[in-house]
Specification:
Strand content: over 45%
Order of helices and strands: EEEEEE
């Protein structure tokens, strides 16, 4: 199931850091991004809304 908040969908993508380590990132987007796949809300995270911009973000619970 895809997580959605205020018209934004949650996506995930694996990125390679400079040290060579792989890390999974999560981000919200209204449009389909160039890379990444839709995902459900990860365990241990809650969604907040930025008061100034209205954009959703993830933070650890």
């Amino acid at each position: 199931m895809v997580y959605e908040k205020n018209g934004y969908e949650l996506y995930t993508r694996k990125v390679k850091l400079k040290g060579g380590r792989d890390q999974v990132i999560y981000f919200f987007s209204k449009k389909k991004p160039k890379s990444g796949s839709k995902c459900d809300l990860p365990a241990g995270y809650v969604v907040g809304i930025n008061k100034r911009t209205g954009l959703p973000y993830l933070k650890k619970a």
